[in-house]
Amino acid sequence: MLQISYLDATTRDLATREGVADERLGPADARALRTLIAEAEAFECAAQFMEFRGIDPDAGDSLEVPFGLGGIAKFAPVHRRRVKDGHEPPGWDEIKRLMLKEVSG
Fold first, then answer.
1. CA angle 45-17-48, nearest 5°?
2. What are the backbone dihedrals phi and psi of residue 82, each rounded to the nearest 5 degrees, phi first?
3. Strand order through the sheet with 97-104
4. What angle do CA 15, 2, 99 make, to 5 degrees?
5. Which of 8, 21, 49, 78 is the most exposed place for a label (fewest CB within 10 A)?
6. What pLDDT was estimated at residue 59?
7. How far apart are CA 86 and CA 37, in angstroms?
8. 90, pLDDT greater than 90
9. Is residue 84 scored above 60 in pLDDT?
10. Residue 19 and residue 4: Cα distance in Å, rounded?
11. What does the mean pLDDT of the chain come to?
12. Residue 55 phi/psi, 5° resolution?
């Protein structure tokens, strides 16, 4: 299962506490953000989530995922091993954890 972690307590609260998200994003976008996170957690790896959401795997080393009526959730992959000089970073199919870095909306 793909795990979602959070950059900080503020980001976590926005994504997981209904009242916080409703106040900042509005009820519809808050619900859409919670749905987005639940969708992500339903997949085995980031590549499956990206395919489901129609995100190009060559778009870069982080994800900007639209939700609701104009919100954007920015995720970064969390690697289990550090990338050393001369070695390719793990592919999206190897990423089992994403960090929610920012939510705008």
1. 10
2. -80, 145
3. 3-6, 97-104, 71-77, 63-67
4. 45
5. 8
6. 77
7. 33
8. no
9. no
10. 20
11. 90
12. -95, 130
Tokens of 5: 């972690």
In sequence order, the β-bridge partners of residue 73 are 65, 103
Structure tokens at 62: 């982080």
Q: What pLDDT, on a 0 to 100 scale, did the predictor assign at position 80?
A: 59
Which residue reads 């793990």 in tokens?
Answer: 90
For the cut 80, the answer to whether the pLDDT of residue 21 exceeds it is: yes
Quick check: 63 pLDDT over 80?
yes
Give start and end residues of each alpha helix (H) in 1-105.
9-16, 18-25, 27-41, 46-53
* DSSP letters for 72-93: EEEEEE--SSPPPTTSPPPPGG
Token pair recorded at residue 69: 């009526």
Specify which residues 99 forms β-bridges with. Answer: 5, 76
In whole angstroms, give the CA distance from residue 65 to residue 13: 19
